[in-house]
Every structure is written in C-alpha cells, then in structure tokens.
Hints:
Elements: H1 2-12, H2 21-26, H3 33-41, H4 45-53, H5 59-65, H6 87-101, E1 119-123, H7 127-138, E2 142-146, H8 155-158, H9 167-178, E3 183-185, H10 196-202, E4 205-208, E5 214-215, E6 228-230, H11 231-237, E7 247-251, H12 255-266, E8 271-275, H13 287-295, E9 299-301, E10 304-311, E11 315-326, E12 335-338, E13 344-347, E14 350-353, E15 357-358, E16 389-391, H14 402-421
Parallel strand pairs: 1-2, 1-4, 2-3, 4-16, 6-14, 7-8, 7-14, 8-9
Antiparallel strand pairs: 5-15, 10-11, 11-12, 11-13
Helix pairs in contact: 1-3, 3-4, 3-6, 4-6, 5-6, 7-14, 11-12
Amino acid sequence: MEEINEIKQKANYCLNCKVKPCSIKGCPLGNNIPGFIQAVKEENYKKAYEIVSKTSVLPGICGLICPHKKQCQGSCVRGIKDKPVSIGDIEAFIFKKAIENNFTLKEHIKIDEKLSKMKVAIVGGGPAGLTCAAFLAKSGVQVTIYEKYNYLGGLLVHGIPEFRLSKQIVKESIDRILDLGIKVEYNKQLGKDLNLENLKQNYDAIFLSIGANVSCKMEIEGENLQGVYGGNELLEYKLHPNYTGKTVAVIGGGNVAMDCARTIKMLGAKNVKVIYRRAREQMPAEDKEVEDAMSEGIEFIFQTNMIKIIGNDKVEKIETIKTQLVQKEGETRLVPINIEGSNDFIDIDYVVLALGSKPDEYTSKLGLELNKFGNININDNYQTSDEKVFAGGDLAGIKGTVAWAAKSGREAAKQIIKHLETI
C-alpha cells in the first residue's frame, strides 16, 4: 500500500499537459506518457499497461534503465522550475502491476487474414528484434526468432549488469512477447548455423538485429598487450581476469564504461579509474550511473586522453595527456585537443576500452551495402540494399539506447507489413 501511495503521489504531480513534450520530444518511442499516468491516477493499471503497450513492449525495462533525464523527464514541463515527474518509476510500476495481475499483450490484437499466411524471420533476439517480432505478431504474421545463444534478450541479459536490470524483469518481458505465438530457434548464429540466402528462400521477409558488440579500438601503441580488454566483450562473455588487488583503467564515458567500472570494482579491484577525454558534462552516461560509480569509490579522471599503453608482454602503465575543449565549426560537441607537455604516467594492471562498438566482421560478408562505419545501410523504410531484408538496432547504426533500438524494431515491423501487403 505504501508503494501504491508513493506512485500515486508521483502520478498526481503530472500536469497532464496538452502539448505532451515528454512524449513528443523526449520519448524515442513516443509513448503516451500523460495517458498512462492518468490511468495510474485512476488506479486502472490494466488500462495503463494497455496504453503503454500500444507503442512499447518493454516498459518494465525502459522504466528502469532508460536515460530519463536526457529523454522523457528532461522534456517534462514540471522540470523547468522544479523536479520533473518521475516517469521512469511510474512506467516500471505499471509493468510490476502487469506481472502481479498477469496482463498480456494480446489486448486489441487485429489479425489480418493475408498477413497470417506470411512468414518473417527475425535474426537476433535483443531489444530491436524482440520489439519487431511482437508488433509483427500482433498483426498475425508468423514470426520465428533465430538467436545465437540459448536465451533471448541480447544486451539486456549480457550487456547490462544485474545490479542495473533484474534478469527476472527481462524474463517477464520476453515471456509476454513470446505469448503472442512467436517461435524461437536457439543456438542459431548467422554465418555459422544460418545462411541469409536460405532464409530468403523460406521467409517472406527478414529482419536483422544481431547488434554491434565488437569494441572499438583507439589505434594506439600497446593495444595488443596482454591485459587490454574490450568493454563490450567483457560484459557479454564475462571472461574477467582476477582483479583482486589490481588497478584498472576504464577508457570511455558511456554506460558501457560505467557498467564495466562498477562490475570490475565489485569483482575485487583495488582501484578503478575511469579516464574520459571530455568534461563530466559531456559524458553520454546517465547521471545516476556516474553518481553510483562515484559513490562506490571509482575514481574519475576528466579531460584526459590515453595515448599509449606501456609494457613488455602485459600492461604495466599508461601514458596520458590532458585535453582542452574547443568548439569547432560543424561540430555539435566540444572537441578535445591534447595539451602539449601535459603528459603523465599511471601504473595500471589492466586496461578496458569502452569507447563504442562496431558490427562483427561477418556483417561485411552478407552481400548487403554497408556505411563507412561498417553498419548495414538502411533507407527510411528500414530496408537494406536487398528489398527483402530489413535491419535495425546497433547493426544499422541506430542510437545506442534500448528505447531507440526498440523504436527501430517497431518501425521496421510497420514497414515489413507494408512490404508483405504488396506480395
């Protein structure tokens, strides 16, 4: 009862504005935020879940891990002069009620007779793939997800630590999606167990959402020394070294860097230093994640660039240089410029590169057009250079948050349906 009263208090704080900047401007998915908050005010949790489920099938996840301050809450009218509405907390609460009351995604489903005879393959069971599958299935399309692991969720499972996102919430979210009648083929990896040409022969359309989880490098001396790791791979495969009593440098300022730093600290590292070449204000990581990392004793070194990793066979130290931030024409962000003569050396046992990611090398062998970053090129309809193949999420260079990936899956589903209707 105490939790319900607290959530109702947060809901009643919403002004239910007519312009809805939280939805239109702030939410990548365009969720009807004032609508589901009004339903919470009325204690009609089934209606609240139905409202949010019209645009999102991952409310329990987005409510917990979305960068709310940068998205919905950052556009809240209340936040101009005071605190914004706690939209994330309310969304997460709605999903909690859906679990308690066994609400499903089957409400208001409209099965199209023609679409019910169509088959679509989804390759990759992360946020984009799951969302695309759900919205296709809601229209009656026969959907099969092909997943390289023996579980679904992608980065929701192996990219985001348990302390940030409960695996039970992920499971409950996936169960509701699969309940729409979606089939799953586990342990099927594109390029090993699956062939794109074969899929094209057996399905009316294919949606690729295998992610882009290969850590980017800095192309500096010493990157190939023993003890240098990619942050994405550390989180995905969990092949951590023994950090006990060690000092670890995590290079980067996004949520992957925060997840790596906090995980490594919890695994027993003596010192964890996050080194970021811009100022804190420019960090793409969610403020809460940065604050939590700081409170856990992780050291932050801002406006500092690592320029060399030093050691014989393994890492011994790194060379850094201070940066100044300048505004360059045509650049939307301040650009860090190395300050000559400000070099320093730090004794380090391990280096973790968390500077972004790129698709697996196999992507270049699919016969699809790629952009200069190695992502699959898509048009405004999420269609690749092959009209039968669509793509979304990180693989297509979509902005790297769960909400943006989910939006790409949903919008791709709409375009796939239009494609299927022409067949």
